[in-house]
Structure formats: C-alpha cells, structure tokens
Design goal:
Strand content: 5-15%
Shape: globular
Radius of gyration: 18 Å
Distance between the termini: 25 Å
Mean pLDDT: 94
CATH topology: TIM Barrel
Strand order of the largest sheet: 1-2-3-4-5-6-7-8
Number of strands: 8
CATH class: Alpha Beta
Number of domains: 1
Helix content: 40-55%
CATH architecture: Alpha-Beta Barrel
Low-confidence stretches: 314-319
C-alpha cells in the first residue's frame, strides 16, 4: 500500500507584519514560550523545512483574527485584506505543500462576507478561518450569518477557531495552561452548539464547518439530543450536517470518539502548529490512527483525504 498522505489542517501562519499575539490572560507557561512561537508562526521557510523533516505532505495555513489582533479590538478591514493578500502570496510559493484559509472577521456582517468572496474568488484561498465567538456573541449570531452564507455558497470550509473569553479565562487562571485551554474549549463548544440552537445548520445545509478537538464537549452535548443527531454519522445522508473535528493533537481515544460520533469521513488531522505540545509528524499520525483502531480506509481519510476533499468541495459536488 502507498504511504498515508498527511495533511495538517490546523497550522498557524502570519507574516512578519502581523506578529502572533498570545491568548488574552494566557497562562504564564505559554507566555514564556510565546516569543519563540511568534517567530515560528512568521517563518514560512522554517515551517516548510519542518514539515519536510516530519513527513507532512500538506499544511493548511491560517491566522484567526484573535491571533493577530489585540484583545478587545476588531481586526480592521484593511488589515484583513493585507493578511489575505500575503497569505495568497505565501501559498503560491509552494502550492503542492500549502493551502490557505482567509482571515475573516465573521462578526462584521456584510463587509466580512465581501472579504470572504474576494479572498476565495480573486486570491484563490481555499476556505475561511474565523473566531468562534466574541466576548458577546457566538458564531450562530445574526452578525455572522453573511459570512457563513458566503462560505456555503462558495463551497469552502469555515474553521471556527477558539478565542480566550475574558470572564472564563480569568475564572480558570488558577489552573495554569489547563485553565487557558478550558476557557477556550468551553467557548468553542458553545459556538458549535449555537450553530445548532440558532438554526444555522438547518438554514445552510451546504455549510462545512471545522472545530478543533478543544471544543469536543459541544459535540458530545449535541449528540446526546435528538436535534443534535443531525451532526452525527447516524443522521440520514440527506440530512447530515457537515460538522468536522480536527484532532488538535494525537490522543487515540479522542480520535476514536470523534470518528465513532461524526464518522471517519468528518475527522481531520490537526496539530495546532506550532502552539500544540505535540507537533505533527508522520510517525505520530500513523501511530495515533492505528492505536485509535481505525482501519486502513479510515486512516487514509483522517490522515489527509478528508482535508483534500474538504478544500476541493464546491456546490453540487458530493460531500
């Protein structure tokens, strides 16, 4: 059998003009690492070299608004355009090894949708990355509907990236890095549930949205209800909502849970590069997927085939 094709859907990149910022009220442990992380996030050559050493075939690059914008501020439209212009140029340097998700402020209404259209149609970017929430709104909010509608019409995925909500991040600060992750995971789970509760998934059946494993509690809670079954593999094919999880690490039990609930065709390798504690490598992916008990076909789907299919999805094509 040919080797697995490995695509890391969760890879961060922002050019030197937009340095990556640590999460709001981040744990001291992460803050100490951040200067080095920010340098790596801006180093495209280093990213490519590392991917080559680790046997990763494709990196999907993204810079969610909260990664490059000070807490409490909105990313300015001109900055979004510059970020996306630069990302398109970066991807063009190695088109067989890189794809890009346009940075979009999903809560900016129609102007956000216009940038999404420009980034995909004019720049050739493969999808969108958005903050899953603000401190006052979740992704199911009316303000985000134009962006989600545009993505559904374009047939490109939306990566709903976690943020650090002020109240929860402060409340969980005593837990250190676990508190930072818990706050981010909680709001990410809430954003997933908001798409269900606010009717977005029913209204936009062609929407393809990816959440990191950090928000898996939202999937678990949704799946425990009749209404939430629509996001699981148990739903009839014509009614199944297109919700995906990236592995955001390589814990076999978590991968098995996601594959059982969503179907192996809705799980993607994601390492949260370079922030994640365990970097994506061929050996790590192969070992994790085998220990998760996935068969050969399922391993190929999760390792890279799902990401390739998702980035190529257009209206009218099979999911």
């Amino acid at each position: 059998m040919p080797p697995l094709y490995i695509a890391d859907f969760h890879t961060h990149y922002a050019g030197p003009d937009y340095p990556a910022l640590p999460p709001h009220n981040t744990a001291a442990e992460l803050a100490q690492r951040w200067r080095g992380l920010a340098r790596r996030i801006a180093d495209l050559d280093g990213l490519l070299a590392e991917a080559g050493r680790h046997g990763v075939d494709l990196r999907v690059l993204s810079a969610p608004p909260a990664l490059v914008t000070p807490h409490g501020e909105r990313t300015r439209p001109d900055d979004l355009r510059r970020l996306n212009d630069h990302l398109a140029e970066a991807v063009a340097t190695a088109p067989q090894r890189l794809r890009g998700l346009a940075t979009v402020d999903a809560f900016a209404g129609d102007s956000a949708a216009e940038e999404a259209l420009r980034a995909v149609r004019d720049l050739g970017l493969s999808g969108l990355v958005v903050d899953c929430a603000t401190d006052g709104q979740l992704l199911g909010a009316t303000a985000a509907r134009p962006t989600l509608t545009a993505a559904a019409e374009l047939g490109v995925p939306v990566f709903a990236h976690p943020i650090s909500p002020a109240a929860m991040t402060s409340a969980f600060a005593g837990l250190g890095r676990f508190g930072t992750s818990l706050a981010r995971g909680t709001v990410n789970a809430a954003a997933l549930l908001s798409l269900l509760a606010d009717g977005v998934l029913a209204e936009l059946p062609d929407l393809h949205v990816v959440f990191p494993m950090l928000g898996v509690a939202g999937l678990s809670l949704a799946a425990a209800t009749d209404e939430g079954e629509r996001i699981t593999v148990a739903a009839p094919a014509t009614q199944r909502a297109h919700v995906y999880l990236d592995t955001m690490g390589f814990t076999p039990a978590a991968i098995r849970f996601a594959a059982d609930l969503l179907g192996a065709d809705h799980v993607l390798v994601g390492g949260d590069w370079p922030i994640g504690q365990r970097e994506t490598s061929r050996d790590r992916v192969e070992t994790a997927l085998a220990r998760a008990g996935l068969d050969e076909a399922e391993r190929r789907l999760v390792a890279g085939a799902n990401t390739l299919r998702l980035l190529a999805t257009r209206p009218g094509r099979d999911d």
